[in-house]
Amino acid sequence: MKERTYEKERAFLAPYATKSEETKGRLRPEEPCSMRTDFQRDRDRIIYSKAFLRLKNKTQVFFAPDGDHYMSRLTHTLDVSQIARSIARCLALNEDLCEAIALGHDLGHTPFGHVGERVLDRIAPCGFHHHEQSLRVVDRLEKDGKGLNLTAEVRSGILNHTPSGKPETLEAEVVRYADLIAYINHDIEDAIRAGFLKKEQLPAGPIALLGKNTSSRINSAIADIYRESYGKPVVKTSAEMGEALVELRTFMFVNVYEQANKLIQESAERMLNALYTYFAARPEELPPLYRELLDECGVPRVVCDYLSSMSDRYAVDLFKRLFVPREGAV
What we know:
Blueprint: H1 2-12, H2 38-47, H3 50-54, H4 73-91, H5 95-104, H6 113-123, H7 130-145, H8 152-159, H9 170-193, H10 204-210, H11 214-229, H12 239-281, H13 288-292, H14 294-297, H15 299-309, H16 312-323
Helix pairs in contact: 2-5, 4-5, 4-9, 4-11, 5-8, 5-9, 6-12, 7-8, 8-9, 9-11, 9-12, 10-12, 12-15, 12-16
């Protein structure tokens, strides 16, 4: 079965696509799977990881929204994966590699979205960036400290999915575009649903180019990447589309992300500051996995490991348990 996949890749993928049988391998050698390629195996390891399951209760934009149809960090991740596979398919790139990178790209995200990331980066001497933490999750924290032992291509793609990253494969570049397309377009829906925006407030230029609804905007962006990239060893947009995406991204940051962040900024800062200070002073109270890492990694890094692993709900409940007086307590 795996050999048939190799044959299909050799026959149908572009010459500059990343072939599964040509992977650079894993950090630790292990017996190959007889049925799945290494990239397919990575994908499976990620979706069965604890960090992936926790994404369902982590903020994307709006914290604890009053409604069932808002994006969470998990639904955003699935969105990125679907868009990445669509782009890879039309460019004859490796869909399995794109999917594995996309599913793992946000595993290290904090509770309370980018607010939580900024708080940890400010208070921890070691600094904190979610793309670096995502790699740490798959390398060191998952499977009770053993890590997932993913391939070099997936690990590099996870680390370099941000705008400042330097993707080493075209598939990783695909995920970087998919992330941008996903969070701009579906976050617009959430912002309108939450009353942060009205459709008529969206910038006219990008909307005229991309389309008036989410489906049209995603299709337009993917079609543009196809026109600019098909048959070439690159993944890129046209200059016009690139400018439109940047303008829409800037608009969303000013009018949605910064405003949504203000709603939870004070509470998130108070909770994460208190939790960080508490465990930095009492590392012996960390769960066993994290205590085992203290000598190797130091208190600041390990406390960040623990706090960033938390779902929104878990962080709130832990804060209450540690700092909010309980009825009848003396």
